[in-house]
Structure formats: C-alpha cells, structure tokens
Amino acid sequence: MKAKKQVIIFGDMRVGKDSPNRSKRTPTVRKIKSAIVPIDRSAVRLGHQPGARPRVETGSAAVADLGASVSFEPTLAERESLDRIDLSVDLAPEHGGLRLANPILVASGTFGYGVEYGEVVDVQRLGAICCKGTTLRPRAGNPPPRVTETPGGMLNSIGLQNPGVDAVIEKYGSVWASWAVPVIVNVAGESIEDYVEVARRLDGVPGVAGIELNISCPNVGKGGLQFAIDRDAARAVTAAVRRATQLPLLVKLSPNVADVRPIARAIEEAGADAISAINTLSGLAVAPDRTRAFLGNTYGGLSGPAIKPVALRIVYEVAQVVSIPIVAIGGVTSIDDVLDFLACGAVAVQVGTAIFADPELPVRLADELRAVCLRRGLETYRPLVGTALPKRTGAPSAKGAEYRP
Ligand SMILES: Cc1cc2nc3c(=O)[nH]c(=O)nc-3n(C[C@H](O)[C@H](O)[C@H](O)COP(=O)(O)O)c2cc1C
C-alpha cells in the first residue's frame, strides 16, 4: 500500500476567502501512513539458511522463528525425516481418547459424509472428518437460493438438510467403520431432547469416533434463542449429551455473541472434551433488484477467509479461559493460517469453505505442517501451540472483546 501525500488544514474550516480568520489556517503537508498494513512474514520465512542441518529439539527455543510459510520440495533424506514427525493429537484425553493422526480436519457441511470425496481426496490422510449436521428426523433444508459468494467468503443457508440420524448410520456407518480416519458426527437439534436422542443413537455405532455439537441452532422451547448464545442453554445441552453418550464430545462455539468466554467455560464445566471454534457469522445479502434479501432464508452464515480474524480472536480468548483442547475453524486456506491458529492456542484446525475450491487442501496442509516441523527441527508440532498467547493471563473481562474503536 503506497503512502499518500495529503494537505491537512487546521483551524476553522468555515471561514470564508476574505475572512480575517483566514490567517489562522495552518496548511501542513504530512506523510499519511496507509491504514492498511499487510502482515509481512518475509523476514521470518523458513528455509533460508542454506546448509543448515535440522535441529531436533522440542523446547520453546526451537520456535524462536515464529512466522512461517513453507514452499518446500523435500529431498529423499528429508522425506524419511518427515515420516518420523509426530503430528498426532488426542482431542479427548479425559474420555477414552479421540486420537487423530494429524491435526487437520475437514469442517462440517463442507465435506458431506466423506464418501462423496473418495475419488478426489485420499480421505485416510485427513486428521478427521466432521460430517454434515445430523438431526433426529430428516430435514429438507431451507428454500433456495441457499448460497452466494461474498468478498473473501460465502454466505450459506443450507438449513441442515440431512436424511436424519438413522439413515446416516445405515448409509454411512459401515463405510466409516472400514476407514482408519475418525469420523466425527456433527449433531444439531431444536431441543435438548433432540440432541440427547441423536447422541444416544450414535453411541456405540462402529465408525462413529465422536460427536461435535452444532449448538448454533434455535432452541424451540426458548422462543428460538440459539443454544450457543445463551450460557445456561449451552451448559444444559452439553451436560445432557455428556450423560447420554460415552463418545468423545466436541461442542462448537458461535461467534455471534458479545463475549464467548463464559459460554466456553460453561461448556467445559458441563463435560465437553474439546471446543470447536467457530461456526459461521450471521450475515445477509440483498437481491439484485433490491426489493428483498437474496437468500431464501433471508439470513445466512458467513464463512471463508473474511472471518479468519474473528475466529483467531475467539480462539485466542477461549484458549485463555479453558484447558480442554480447542479445534480452530474459520477461513483456513494456507499453512500460515494453520500456524496462526496454533499460535493462538488451538491444537487442531478444521478446513471448511476452502475445500469447495481445493478439495486436496487439507491433506496438503498436513504435509506442509510436517515440513514446518522438519525445518524447525521439531519432533512434534506441539511447541507451535500457544506461542502468541499472552505470557501471563489477566482476569477475564466481563465486557467481551477487548476492542475499542
Ligand atoms: C455450506 C456450509 C454448510 C455448513 N454446514 C454446517 C453444519 O451442518 N454444521 C456445522 O456445525 N457447521 C456447518 N458449517 C460451518 C462450517 O463447519 C465452519 O464452521 C464455517 O464454515 C467456518 O469455517 P470456514 O471459514 O473454513 O468455512 C457449514 C458451512 C458451510 C460453508
């Protein structure tokens, strides 16, 4: 962004040409710095130390070089070293374990039930698959149009179209059971009883490795108030599902709240194994003739690169108030995005909207994360987690995001 020269005039702007006040004006030419300053990571890019041997260490000193982008063609020897790097992560250490071979997952609603991508992607190389939102009964979804592009993202209002939990189990359960990659079933409902019943039916089904609660759904019993924006409702639905199933339990936060921290804490206290953050941001598009909203459902969920700073902020805040694992979601399109989320305290990352443009991206990101570790002399990616968090956590604010315009 180029700096511009601009004339700044101080004094009373209302004075006329012949006014005696005119002399009070003080024209000044100043250099105005661009308001938009892109992050420049070039100074800290990896792989610019020719001949340097990889150091193998796991302390924080190994991550002095915190920015990273990799463009990396491994040699044969490096390839062997890459295979030795441990990217595994357990998302439910307290509850029987939900061990993933790597921390790159695919986000609910953007990868179907996994089987649809079998021809295009080696799904076994994903960390895990979060399948499309599943409800107790089949749902036809919202009226069209259901999606539209936005700058840096998209709006969707699919409306949880799905065949219902029994059909999902019947259709996909046996395929999932034959896969090494864990499948996490994303569960939605309109009441606590809905969520509990879906969880109960999934419990013990071979091929179902865990549950992710999509609590960004209207709670019909509470006048349509979303579970995710009400601390007590979030706590109640998490606790009820926890009692109903032995499966590892992730609960997915909505960004559409003033302060997500009390909600995250309530979810942890209610027994969730991990937190996923974030779901889409509530948004709207206008029809071309401007006589109505564009989407059939009026509102849609914004996703894609446009929401990454919001997701980063929420992960950063939540990481300081809970101790269960955080799985970050929101606008991931590159290894830099993955590293940013890890730095803010996430232990794993889901890729969503970017899959529509590049279905192989999640698998590639796992490879690139391995390459980052190798170049930094790390045996695991763990030292990359939480490096951007404040060294000492202050008392959590009651006001929400610490942003003052
Ligand atoms: C078309 C579409 C459908 C989605 N369906 C679901 C869903 O069924 N359940 C859910 O929890 N999240 C759903 N999401 C939200 C994503 O899982 C993810 O949280 C969000 O898109 C942000 O990540 P992204 O910016 O990488 O896409 C959906 C997103 C999109 C774009």
Word description of this protein:
24% of the residues lie in helices and 18% in strands. Mean pLDDT is 86; it is low at 1-23 and 46-68. Helix 4 (231-244) packs parallel to helix 5. The chain has an eight-stranded parallel barrel, surrounded by six helices. A four-stranded antiparallel sheet has the order 7-8-16-15, with no helix packed on it. A two-stranded antiparallel sheet has the order 1-2. The longest helix has 15 residues, at 361-375. Helix 3 links the parallel strand 9 (183-187) and strand 10. The protein is globular, with a radius of gyration of 24 Å. It has 405 residues and is an alpha/beta fold. It has helices at 76-84, 165-177, 192-202, 231-244, 261-269, 308-319, 335-343, 354-357, 361-375, and strands spanning 4-10, 26-32, 89-90, 99-100, 104-106, 128-130, 147-150, 153-156, 183-187, 210-214, 218-219, 225-226, 249-253, 274-277, 281-284, 299-303, 326-329, 348-351. The protein folds into two domains: 1-36, no CATH class; 44-384, Aldolase class I (TIM Barrel), CATH 3.20.20. Bound molecules: flavin mononucleotide. Flavin mononucleotide binds next to loops.
